[in-house]
UniProtKB/TrEMBL annotation:
<dbReference type="InterPro" id="IPR020097">
    <property type="entry name" value="PsdUridine_synth_TruA_a/b_dom"/>
</dbReference>
<comment type="subunit">
    <text>Homodimer.</text>
</comment>
<feature type="domain" description="Pseudouridine synthase I TruA alpha/beta">
    <location>
        <begin position="152"/>
        <end position="254"/>
    </location>
</feature>
<comment type="similarity">
    <text>Belongs to the tRNA pseudouridine synthase TruA family.</text>
</comment>
<dbReference type="GO" id="GO:0160147">
    <property type="term" value="F:tRNA pseudouridine(38-40) synthase activity"/>
</dbReference>
<dbReference type="Pfam" id="PF01416">
    <property type="entry name" value="PseudoU_synth_1"/>
</dbReference>
<keyword id="KW-0819">tRNA processing</keyword>
<protein>
    <recommendedName>
        <fullName>tRNA pseudouridine synthase A</fullName>
        <ecNumber>5.4.99.12</ecNumber>
    </recommendedName>
</protein>
<dbReference type="InterPro" id="IPR001406">
    <property type="entry name" value="PsdUridine_synth_TruA"/>
</dbReference>
<dbReference type="InterPro" id="IPR020103">
    <property type="entry name" value="PsdUridine_synth_cat_dom_sf"/>
</dbReference>
<feature type="active site" description="Nucleophile">
    <location>
        <position position="57"/>
    </location>
</feature>
<feature type="binding site">
    <location>
        <position position="118"/>
    </location>
    <ligand>
        <name>substrate</name>
    </ligand>
</feature>
<keyword id="KW-0413">Isomerase</keyword>
<dbReference type="InterPro" id="IPR020094">
    <property type="entry name" value="TruA/RsuA/RluB/E/F_N"/>
</dbReference>
<dbReference type="InterPro" id="IPR020095">
    <property type="entry name" value="PsdUridine_synth_TruA_C"/>
</dbReference>
<comment type="function">
    <text>Formation of pseudouridine at positions 38, 39 and 40 in the anticodon stem and loop of transfer RNAs.</text>
</comment>
Length: 277
């Protein structure tokens, strides 16, 4: 068997015109566009095993997405110095590969990850979102109180069963550990939620944001989002916030091959495949 090299790709994209990350027949997806371009540059089937840290939904953006793939070692040696620029010329402008790095075979973009961090942007300005930010910022129709948003967020931090906030999948756990959840108001008035966890189940981030927003505008008490954690089924009272306000900004990994291997083994043992956003 030919020697193969594993590569880590750091990827950014504007999710507006993508039907999410995962390749789908007849739909434009980030993985589909990326593999089509790699096949064009390297030859069909040369790059294999594309695996992503978080399968973002349709309309969700990324500035810190991570994936890995495998190439024949000789192909990587031939193209290493120029592949990034060739991809930049051929990829559409709404997706960029910002770095391609050789990594140990133990690195797994999905299972070796120790955390995923998202940000969600909201404006409560009476005129709505600025035109140049309309594709990554949700316009909220009511004034939002920063203190109330952070009070609602505080009750959701920690390890909980987030069944009320997830689209359940058969045999999948909804137990997650949220290590960071807070809001800030930037100088331009935009409210930004930062949400970090070991992993997320499907729709979890946007469901959490949706619950916090109605606490932030006063329609629900600030302890209402945390109160839903006692439920073991998805709550119909929670509205999933629109996808376009959400961006995957960072994925964390152990520093060495042994750490990546240990983390991947632990994740596989504890969880079935994870969906994001």
């Amino acid at each position: 068997m030919d020697e193969r090299t594993r590569l880590r790709l750091d990827v950014s994209y504007d999710g507006t015109d993508f039907s999410g990350w995962a390749a789908q027949p007849t739909r434009r997806t980030v993985a589909g566009v990326l593999m089509e371009t790699l096949d064009l540059v390297l030859g069909a089937g040369t790059a294999t095993g594309l695996t992503v840290a978080g399968r973002t939904d349709a309309g969700v953006h990324a500035t810190g997405q991570v994936c890995h793939l495998d190439l024949p070692a000789e192909v990587w040696r031939q193209h290493e110095g120029r592949l990034l620029r060739r991809l930049a010329r051929l990829l559409p402008p709404d997706v960029r590969v910002r770095a391609m790095t050789g990594v140990p075979a133990e690195f797994d973009a999905r299972f070796s990850a120790t955390f995923r961090r998202y940000e969600y942007r909201v404006t409560d300005a009476p005129w709505g979102a600025e035109p140049l930010r309309r594709t990554d910022t949700l316009a909220w129709p009511k004034p939002l109180d920063l203190a109330a948003l952070n009070a609602a967020a505080a009750g959701l931090v920690g390890e909980h069963d987030f069944a009320a906030y997830c689209r359940r999948k058969e045999n999948a756990t909804t137990l997650r550990e949220v290590t960071r959840l807070d809001w800030r108001r930037d100088p331009d008035g935009i409210l930004v939620a930062t949400v970090q966890a070991d992993a997320f189940c499907q729709n979890m981030v946007r469901s959490l944001v949706g619950a916090m927003l109605v606490a932030g505008d006063g329609r629900r008490p600030v302890d209402w989002p945390a109160g839903l954690l006692s439920r073991r089924e998805r709550s119909s009272e929670v509205t999933v916030a629109p996808a376009h306000g959400l961006t995957l900004v960072e994925v964390g990994y152990p520093d060495d091959a042994a750490g990546c291997a240990r983390r991947a083994e632990l994740t596989r043992r504890l969880r079935v495949p994870v969906a994001e956003g």
